[in-house]
Sequence to fold (162 residues):
Amino acid sequence: MHLVQLLQILFLMLLANGAPVIAKRLFGRRYVYPVDANMRFSDGRRLFGSSKTIRGVICALFVTAVAAPLVGLSVWLGLVIAAGAMAGDLLSSFTKRRLGLPASSRAIPIDQVPESLIPLLACYAVLDLTVLDVIVGVLVFLIGGLLLSRLLFWLHVRDRPY
Fold:
């Protein structure tokens, strides 16, 4: 197992997923533009929902790219990890809207698996990860994300525990 690389990726995925939450606290309602431009799918529901914003995606990309060299990875790989995490987050939201779940609702493992699997697969060849690395990474992200979310809720950073 590539423990150091896995920890680097997990840390950057945490930053990518946390940046939009922190941005919401810092900026409030300023600079909020929905990723889906309020468009609706054929089922009449929003594509992603109101909580997925361009501000959040930009903050995730920026923070993760800046942090990547600090943990020994390239800016480019930081951008890849952030883009993968945001793509996974949007896929999760799209899936939850199709299932009729409201924005920001809890849906384990729909919320965590794409957000971790896509960036891990994006790094798979570049960092010479194994299938076991990817499985462990997804499981650690799932469990760690649930625990961290409760801590952030308790600290009044998140609106809801997940």
About this structure: The radius of gyration is 15 Å. The helical segments are 3-27, 54-67, 75-98, 112-124, 131-154. Residues 3-154 form one domain. The chain has five helices and no strands.
